[in-house]
Structure prediction request, 142 residues.
Amino acid sequence: MLSSPSSVLYAAEPGLDVDEFCRVLLESGLGATRPTGDRPRMRQMLDQADLVVAARLDRPDRALIGVARSITDFSWCCYLSELAVSPSAQGLGVGKGLIDETRRLIGPRVSLVLASMPDSVGFYERIGMPRQPDAFWFKRSE
Ligand SMILES: CC(C)(COP(=O)(O)OP(=O)(O)OC[C@H]1O[C@@H](n2cnc3c(N)ncnc32)[C@H](O)[C@@H]1OP(=O)(O)O)[C@@H](O)C(=O)NCCC(=O)NCCS
Prediction:
């Protein structure tokens, strides 16, 4: 368990390594709902993303402890598809920090939208993200 959130660096990482990405997803539990066993598909998810924000420890190994992957036009809308924090760093503000950095990078003209996992609803409520009753979704079939 980390003791302080002040040792975390947030930055866009367009070249994030697919194995690092999968590791954090799997550690957080979100990997169970993503095709982590299909590396070409995961690599395409990174390659075709518009914004990947990484949270790394400010120490020599720059260990990845969190990630936020979004699709956006940087003009009107942004869909945050994956937000994940390693268990050792949860509860220290890293999830909120990743959302804050994503919002900073897309700017005030762009809406941020996402679909929460059931266990994370309280997190989005806690950080003050408004809930929308009129969102719709065609689920993927594969
Ligand atoms: C959800 C997740 C991203 C939150 O990241 P985190 O770094 O632990 O969250 P933060 O420390 O920034 O939390 C901010 C606040 O929300 C609270 N919070 C965090 N997770 C919460 C949860 N699941 N339910 C209710 N409150 C939560 C924190 O206690 C904190 O409250 P505080 O302001 O009183 O200190 C992280 O728990 C995670 O990776 N979960 C597994 C993967 C997942 O479900 N991702 C979301 C997909 S939609």
About this structure: Residues 28-30, 83-85, 90-96, 116-117, 119-120, 122-123, 126-127 surround coenzyme A (CB under 6 Å).
